Amino acid sequence: MVPERFAPVLAELAPLADRFEQRGHQLHLVGGTVRDLLLGDAPRDFDLDLTTDARPAEIKVCLDGWADSVWTQGERFGTIGAHRHTIDADGGEVPRIYEITTFRSEAYTDASRKPHVTFADHIDADLSRRDFTINAMALELTSGTTPTLVDPFGGASDLVSRTLRTPLGPEISFSDDPLRMLRAARFVASHAMEPEPGLVAAVREMAQRLGIVSAERIRDELDKLITADHPSAGLWFLVDTGLAEQFLPELPAMRLEHDPIHRHKDVLTHTFAVIENVRPPHELPADHPPFDFRITRLAALFHDIGKPRTRGFQPGKGTTFHHHDAVGARMTRRRLQELRYSNGDVDAITELVALHLRFHTYRLGWSDSAVRRYVRDAGPLLHELNVLTRCDCTTRNERKARTLSRRMDELEQRITELAAAEELAALRPELDGRQVMEHLGVPPGRVVGDALDALLEIRLEEGLVGDEEIRRRLDQWFRDQRAAGKYVERS
């Protein structure tokens, strides 16, 4: 009896399975979909992974007339991709990606980042080369009217006991693809798995082998880990096994630094607490500011990496970390670039690290000018910065926590009030460059840029002063500049 939750996926794949069976081939559903279905979860995305004894040329024949489109970029690795629109549980049409791969064995040579692929003839050989037993299960779709679970390595039992094991010895599995060591951290976090002692020992012994894996693959795996519901267990796995040293050495460095402010044993413990505080948003109101959860989590990961380099001691104050925000921002930029993050991601995360203490510079209340400058500096990252600031409070002192929360509430209220009065989200001078040139009678050049900077300063300090007054101020500024010997007389 097939559980009801399997029915939609099996019904969707039945016509494709018939095509393979008619040509004498097996077809198996594999990967995370099988694991998630056994857990009672819906498939996590719109991609389905399948495997077969058919070679790539035969796969294409089976797909002919069934798929909306087929692509063959992965053919030399045994993978044929297909796209087809399907009907979801609500009766709507959705696009689906199918990747169908010939049974294979795959291994990396000692120094290569490219896998060497050979095809296999039996599903057990294919499953043995997968990362963990919980992912080394398959549903055979061509075994008659009832699909058969193929589980040669006890993945279903490990799923129940939350045990993380490799199908073969961990040394073999991690030698085949060293990224699996980093992937282990993700499953520790996302599925609350407990790695078996042999797996942990193998990671510690083989951590340096991560060096043959491309920065792009490491980056993508880090993104998946950092966006897990509770990533801290996986992050501790990275530090404790030495994996973090291979691609993010700033992380274990923070473990050495006592953090007297937050009353944690070390800066790293505080950092992981901040990451956990940043929660994925549920449904946001239509008028709510956008929130980039991944970017904010990564900013939380990096926000204190400058502390080890800026650690000092001041009599009467104890341990200090002066300017760790600026130092940390520079360190963050370098590390993110080495991990091949996009320029947009690098800029956003670095800016949040640089600004994460800005809130604490205003201790005597928020003047209108201070609010404008905070909003101007945060720019499109305003909501992310506010979330990071709130989450950075991990003190166990309830009074301090309440005080910070109240001050943050006050700031957000001031932002809302000023935004309604002054279009705060679009802070800019009251005159644009064209108006400056027309009013002063000057051509494009340095004087226009300097004038706009002066007008923006007025806007930040005083808000909107009106067209007549701002033009009077512009005239006064220009006269003062000429009196100081700058710029030429108006013609």
Task: Please provide a written account of the structure.
The protein has helices at residues 7-22, 32-39, 56-63, 123-128, 155-161, 170-176, 179-190, 197-206, 215-226, 232-241, 243-247, 250-253, 267-277, 293-302, 307-310, 324-338, 343-355, 368-378, 382-391, 398-422, 433-440, 446-462, 467-483; strands spanning 27-30, 47-52, 69-71, 79-87, 93-102, 104-108, 115-119, 138-140, 148-150, 163-164, 194-195, 312-314, 318-320. The strands form four sheets. A seven-stranded mixed β-sheet has the order 3-4-5-2-1-8-9. A two-stranded antiparallel ribbon has the order 6-7. Helix content is 50%, strand content 12%. A hairpin with a 6-residue loop joins strand 6 and strand 7. The chain is elongated and about 90 Å long. It has four domains: 4-161, Beta Polymerase, domain 2; 168-247, Orthogonal Bundle (Hydrophobic Seed Protein), CATH 1.10.110; 251-426, Hypothetical protein af1432 (Orthogonal Bundle), CATH 1.10.3210; 433-483, no CATH class. The chain contains 23 helices and 13 strands. It has 491 residues and is of the alpha+beta class.
